[in-house]
């Protein structure tokens, strides 16, 4: 057996590909787009504002745009689409409505609700019962005393009723369905459990919507099909008129309205008519006109809550008509305004505000205002917006605009939310004026100021009079307490920053500091502060600029908890995004910030996904720190980090990498840094054992060994390689149960092998001491045949390379001699290598035979064959092994396999011309 | 299995006008074939008058049911004697309601079901089966509405009467605090109303010393029967429609919108022996402790905590 001599220089030249310069980095991307923020003023969103993940940015962008397009195109889109959108909106509205108002578990059911309490049998009245009896029934029930049932019972009873109505309907007992539905609608007359009312409303209207749907279907069928089932006309949902409907169907339809009309009580009568309201289309050409009547009928409901929800139901059912008519909605809003005005003026305080006891009621009524307002401005044209504003009494006329009379602030709030942005921007000053004079306590005035700020931020370029607006707002907020101050200022901050109003910014920061300095910040205040600081951070490109802002750091110091962590994370993110951090003061500051972040983070849950981001940011910061030529200082810094952030595993790896990197840099400097390099290697060596994971340790040891070698510290590197081997040895023992990361092991050992080429052999322990220990590890492990075969190949390649008269690469240190020089011409050295190989080669063949998968066996054989052919001269010793491997490959693989044919031709080429030239043919 | 007979009319709502033919089919379901001696349909329409309670005295009420007034009484042969095969047999028919030969027949009053007066039209089919078998029969009610030709040509005047209700317009005693504090409810309401249109109007509470509990519109019918020399009149409630629930805002107008119930109303009739008229009552109930003590009171009885205004209402059938 004989190793094949190689000329690496010549081989490299013959195999190298021509290179050409590239101007653009293939992976570089265009600069990130600014992120559009959507205004959402709901309290939940404010407090749960999370750390902004830049990777999500592109996602949120298109979604915003899509919504805009929809708004724009809705009128041209199919009606089906808008119906779907409406249905979806209503569904989510209902869900929010039920979640918004917490209800205690028990509900006292007043008199009226015998439908709920008396289970099952509530409605055994024969269908011939007269209206008078109906009347009696409701009166009888009012004598029953109040009962208490659980919310769950109430809800499930309503679900039962819904099923019952559905069943009765499908059993052709439509009268029963109607009667039960009326009973269900009557439940809404009871507003005694305030917070349960929204839930009740959702449940009841669900039932009524279902009934309405069934009635609509029935009449439509009656209109479309003759009694014998023949279809005689087709009513396309979008556009049929009453004139297309046959008399018979009209008759049935009118009957339904008659039946509903006989309901004595006002509230259920309105609700039932609304349920079947779309059916007016079968009877009259302009059903929208009836809406106005229903709206005025609602005025007969004196209970503010009941009437507000009734108007909500009107707005919902009116959508079914698909008309753009908003007159009825405007009347609704004006009526609700009147209710609020009366609520605030009657008996209560002379100052004309809302008693605090009224606030819960106001907030219960809010969803109604919200939904109606949304419906009014749903794809409204600019002209219509003007008309709406006049009708709502906000504008005096389309020409004179703002009339300066106050508006109920809760109504104003939802109006401002829905107004088109350009109107808000154009009339911002007037709007601020309007807010100023609308201070009735039905809604917090500062929230309206805040909302305007947020709306203005949507289209900052369009704001006409920025200075005046900001001046006005700053003046208003100067009288506020901290929480309100922060919330309003937060909304205007973008505008202030965008317009470089540095004076205002200074004032704001001073004010915040002054107000916050002597108190513990509450959750809400922290959330606002967080938002403000994050806005500042994202506005200024340069972190040092932010730090130099007056009071920024002081304000940051006052914060605590998760808000501070989030700000800190933003700071770290920003600090490390634009390359290395050089400035020592900044580094010190960031180190302190990292420490704060680290101590605020729950160490117990370090594995928690939430905390990984913190760990990653701190690690990245440590990695990005650059003390330049102050190597000693940098190493000190790394040691400090090791002490401070001990619990972050990821960071320790970075510390090792950094210290190795530092050593390399020092070495490259050319001056004598041996002492410093030793400290770096010592630092790494001490740090590595605390990192969990043997393969990780192994790689870090190898990296450090390489650095040691580079520094000319042979004994250090020997020690490190020994530690690496130890790691390898203990790896399986500890991680035995888990599946072995074979690719990881393979690449680590290959890396070790390539390192060994540079390491001078140590005759004291035997020059092949390390390859032999690797071999014994391979033998003792139950690794897969594939991994073992590949490792053996690595050893073969290593030995073949070591046998060369000139090694392919050397340590960049003249005093360290490679094995080629140490053992030049030493035949015993080559002999030892060859004798090692004599045991390895058969072993390799055996291992390949152990592989169970045919395809894998085939490719492994070829791989081994290639390795052997490039390592040895093909002679009578080696050829049988190669032939055997080729046979194995042939038996496993397709004869046309490319790998197989190229391996064979490679063998052929390398075969000595003299020796059996035709022994291997296909 | 016995033989079943059914009478089914051509219109699901069973409404016919005197000049129109009553159409439909007789459905006979029989297990075996049966023979018969002829099929006839009897049409019967009558005004049933009954005196009870109301302004009738004890003696009058003893009379009980008065002799009904016949409007229509005809028997029409549909088929001569013959035989049904087993299974389902359908025999269509078509009968003109108004007999063109009888010029001076009774007027076809519209169907009406009241307390004392009832105007009803029945169609009865009878299959004669000789003496050995009971004859088979089935009856359905059909509803008669006035002929379009007989109706008023001019549209009903949209005029409304203006009403105002105050403590001074009340003819019954009211609570002292109401009397002294006062109240004023104004509005307008139509007093002539087409059958198929809602009774319309509006109402405004301008002032009220006591909070309002409810405002209801009562639709009343007034049935009068000529009994000997006396006219016995009974007023009864047809339907109550609440238009305000609770203490509604002052000076905010609420609409009056009452859909007239079918069958329980008919065009106002002023015949010789009887008359059917309607009234509308606007009743305002004020919140009062007293009302809780009498929760089940008859809504028509004037109470201390109520104010009301009753107006005549003429119902008309329009084209």
From TrEMBL, chain A:
Main localization of the protein described in the UniProt heading: other
Cellular compartments annotated: Endosome
Compositionally biased region (Basic and acidic residues): 38-49, 121-146
Residue ranges crossing the lipid bilayer per the database entry: none
Superkingdom of the organism of origin: Eukaryota
GO BP of this protein: endocytic recycling; protein transport; retrograde transport, endosome to Golgi
Region span, Disordered: 1-63, 118-146
GO cellular component, one term: endosome
Keyword annotations of the record: Endosome, Protein transport, Transport
Family per similarity comment: Belongs to the VPS35L family.
Xref: PANTHER family: ESOPHAGEAL CANCER ASSOCIATED PROTEIN (PTHR13673), VPS35 ENDOSOMAL PROTEIN-SORTING FACTOR-LIKE (PTHR13673:SF0)
Record-given protein name: Uncharacterized protein
Originating organism: Hibiscus trionum (Flower of an hour)
Lineage: Eukaryota, Viridiplantae, Streptophyta, Embryophyta, Tracheophyta
TrEMBL record, chain B:
Role: Component of the commander complex that is essential for endosomal recycling of transmembrane cargos; the commander complex is composed of the CCC subcomplex and the retriever subcomplex. Component of the retriever complex, which is a heterotrimeric complex related to retromer cargo-selective complex (CSC) and essential for retromer-independent retrieval and recycling of numerous cargos such as integrin alpha-5/beta-1 (ITGA5:ITGB1). The recruitment of the retriever complex to the endosomal membrane involves CCC and WASH complexes.
Assembly: Component of the commander complex that is essential for endosomal recycling of transmembrane cargos; the commander complex is composed of the CCC subcomplex and the retriever subcomplex. Component of the heterotrimeric retriever complex consisting of VPS26C, VPS29 and VPS35L; within the complex interacts with VPS35L. Interacts with SNX17 (via C-terminus); the interaction is direct and associates SNX17 with the retriever complex. Interacts with SNX31; the interaction is direct.
Gene3D superfamilies assigned: 2.60.40.640
Key words of the record: Endosome
Subcellular location: Endosome
Protein name, as recorded: Vacuolar protein sorting-associated protein 26C
Organism for this UniProt entry: Hibiscus trionum
Keyword set includes Nuclease: no
């Amino acid at each position: 057996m004989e190793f094949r001599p190689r000329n690496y220089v010549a081989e490299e030249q013959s195999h190298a590909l021509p290179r050409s310069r590239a101007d653009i980095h293939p992976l570089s991307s265009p600069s990130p787009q600014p992120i559009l923020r959507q205004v959402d003023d709901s309290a939940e969103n404010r407090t749960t504002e999370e750390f902004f993940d830049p990777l999500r940015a592109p996602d949120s962008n298109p979604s915003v745009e899509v919504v805009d397009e929809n708004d724009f195109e809705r009128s041209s889109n199919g009606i089906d689409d808008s119906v779907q959108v409406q249905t979806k909106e209503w569904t989510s509205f209902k869900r929010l409505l039920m979640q918004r108002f917490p209800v205690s578990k028990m509900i006292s059911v007043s008199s009226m609700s015998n439908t709920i309490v008396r289970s099952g049998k509530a409605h055994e009245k024969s269908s011939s019962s007269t209206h008078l009896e109906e009347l009696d029934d409701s009166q009888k029930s009012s004598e029953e005393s109040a009962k208490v049932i659980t919310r769950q019972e109430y809800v499930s009873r309503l679900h039962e009723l819904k099923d019952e109505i559905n069943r009765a309907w499908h059993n052709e007992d439509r009268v029963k369905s109607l009667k039960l539905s009326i009973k269900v609608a009557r439940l809404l007359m009871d507003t005694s459990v305030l917070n349960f009312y929204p839930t009740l409303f959702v449940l009841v209207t669900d039932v009524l919507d279902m009934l309405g749907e069934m009635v609509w279907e029935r009449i439509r069928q009656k209109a479309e099909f003759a009694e014998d089932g023949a279809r005689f006309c087709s009513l396309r949902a979008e556009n049929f008129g009453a004139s297309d409907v046959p008399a018979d169907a009209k008759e049935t339809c009118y009957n339904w309205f008659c039946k509903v009309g006989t309901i004595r009580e006002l509230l259920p009568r309105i609700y039932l008519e609304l349920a079947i309201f779309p059916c007016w289309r079968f009877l009259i050409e302009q059903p929208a006109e009836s809406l106005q009547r229903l709206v005025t009928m609602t005025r007969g409901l004196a209970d503010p809550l009941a009437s507000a929800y009734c108007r909500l139901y009107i707005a919902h059912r009116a959508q079914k008509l698909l008309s753009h008519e908003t007159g009825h909605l405007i009347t609704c809003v004006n009526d609700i305004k009147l209710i609020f005005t009366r609520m605030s003026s009657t008996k209560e305080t002379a100052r004309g505000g809302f008693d605090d006891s009224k606030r819960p009621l106001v907030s219960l009524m809010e969803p109604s205002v919200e939904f109606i307002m949304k419906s009014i401005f749903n794809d409204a044209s600019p002209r219509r917006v003007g008309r709406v504003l006049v009708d709502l009494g906000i504008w005096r006329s389309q020409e004179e605009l703002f009339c300066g009379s106050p508006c109920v602030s809760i109504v104003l709030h939802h109006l401002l939310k829905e107004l088109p942005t350009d109107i808000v921007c154009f009339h911002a000053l007037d709007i601020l004026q309007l807010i100023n004079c609308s201070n009735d306590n039905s809604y917090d005035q500062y929230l309206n100021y805040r909302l305007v700020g947020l709306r203005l931020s949507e289209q900052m370029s369009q704001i006409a009079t920025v200075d005046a607006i900001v001046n006005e707002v700053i003046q208003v907020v100067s009288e506020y307490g901290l929480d309100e101050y922060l919330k309003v200022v937060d909304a205007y901050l973008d505008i202030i920053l965008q317009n470089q109003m540095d004076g205002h910014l200074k004032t704001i920061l001073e004010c915040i500091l002054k107000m916050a300095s002597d108190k513990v910040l509450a959750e809400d205040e922290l959330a606002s502060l967080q938002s403000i600081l994050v806005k500042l951070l994202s506005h200024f490109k340069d972190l040092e600029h932010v730090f130099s802002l007056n009071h920024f750091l002081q304000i940051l110091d006052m914060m605590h908890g998760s808000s501070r962590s989030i700000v800190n994370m933003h700071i770290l993110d920003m600090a490390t995004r634009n390359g290395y951090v050089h400035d020592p003061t900044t580094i010190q500051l960031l180190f302190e910030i990292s420490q704060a972040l680290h101590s605020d983070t729950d160490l117990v849950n370090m594995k928690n996904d939430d905390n990984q981001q913190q760990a990653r940011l701190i690690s990245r910061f440590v990695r990005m720190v650059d003390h330049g030529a102050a190597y000693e200082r940098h190493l000190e810094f790394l040691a400090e980090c090791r002490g401070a952030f001990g619990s972050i595993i990821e960071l320790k790896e970075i510390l090792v990498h950094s210290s190795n990197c530092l050593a390399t840099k020092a070495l490259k400097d050319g001056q004598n840094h041996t002492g410093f390099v030793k400290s770096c290697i010592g630092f790494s060596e001490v740090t590595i054992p605390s990192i969990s994971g043997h393969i990780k340790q192994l790689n870090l040891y190898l990296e450090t060994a390489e650095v040691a070698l580079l520094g000319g510290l042979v004994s250090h590197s020997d020690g490190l390689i020994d530690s690496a081997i130890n790691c390898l040895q203990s790896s399986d023992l500890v991680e035995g149960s888990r599946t072995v990361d074979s690719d990881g092991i393979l690449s680590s050992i290959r890396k070790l092998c390539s390192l060994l080429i540079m390491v001078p052999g140590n005759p004291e322990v035997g020059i092949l001491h390390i390859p032999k220990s690797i071999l014994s590890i391979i033998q003792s492990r139950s690794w897969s045949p594939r991994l073992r075969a590949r490792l053996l190949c690595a050893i073969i390649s290593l030995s073949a390379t070591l046998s060369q008269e000139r090694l392919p690469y050397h340590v960049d240190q003249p005093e360290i001699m490679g094995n080629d020089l140490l053992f030049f011409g030493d035949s015993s050295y080559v002999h030892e290598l060859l004798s090692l190989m004599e045991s390895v080669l058969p072993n390799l063949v055996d291992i390949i035979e152990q592989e169970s998968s045919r395809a894998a066996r085939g490719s492994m054989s070829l791989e081994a064959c290639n390795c052997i052919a490039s390592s040895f001269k093909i002679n009578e010793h080696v050829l049988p092994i190669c032939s055997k491997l080729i046979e194995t490959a042939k038996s496993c693989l397709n004869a046309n396999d490319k790998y197989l044919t190229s391996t064979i031709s490679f063998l052929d080429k390398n075969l000595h011309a003299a020796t059996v030239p035709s022994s291997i043919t296909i | 299995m016995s033989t079943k007979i059914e009478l089914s009319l051509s219109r699901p709502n069973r409404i016919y006008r005197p000049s129109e033919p009553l159409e439909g089919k007789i459905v006979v379901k029989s297990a075996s074939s049966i023979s018969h001696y002829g099929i006839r349909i009897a049409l019967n329409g009558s005004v049933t008058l009954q005196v009870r309670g109301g302004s009738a005295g004890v003696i009058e009420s003893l009379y009980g049911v008065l002799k009904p007034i016949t409007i229509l009484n005809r028997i029409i042969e549909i088929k001569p004697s013959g035989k049904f095969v087993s299974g389902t047999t359908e025999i269509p028919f078509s009968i003109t309601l108004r007999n063109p030969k009888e010029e001076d027949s009774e007027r076809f009053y519209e169907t009406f079901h009241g307390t004392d007066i009832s105007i009803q039209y029945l169609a009865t089919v009878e299959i004669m089966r000789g003496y050995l078998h009971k004859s088979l029969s089935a009856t359905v009610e059909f509803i008669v509405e006035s002929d379009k030709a007989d109706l008023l040509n001019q549209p009903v005047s949209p005029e409304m009467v203006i009403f105002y209700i105050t403590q001074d317009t009340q003819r019954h005693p009211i609570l002292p605090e109401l009397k002294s504090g006062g109240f004023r409810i104004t509005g307008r309401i139509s007093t002539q109303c087409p059958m198929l249109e809602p009774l319309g109007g509006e109402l405004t509470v301008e002032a009220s010393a006591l909070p309002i509990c409810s405002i209801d519109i009562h639709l009343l019918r007034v049935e009068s029967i000529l009994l000997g020399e006396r006219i016995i009149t009974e007023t009864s409630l047809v339907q109550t429609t609440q238009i305000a629930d609770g203490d509604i805002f002052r000076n905010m107008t609420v609409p009056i919108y009452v859909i007239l119930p079918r069958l329980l109303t008919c065009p106002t009739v002023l015949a010789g022996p009887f008359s059917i008229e309607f009234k509308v009552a606007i009743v305002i109930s004020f919140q009062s402790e007293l009302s809780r003590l009498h929760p089940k009171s008859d809504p028509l009885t004037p109470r201390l905590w109520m104010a009301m205004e009753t107006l005549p209402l003429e119902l008309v059938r329009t084209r």
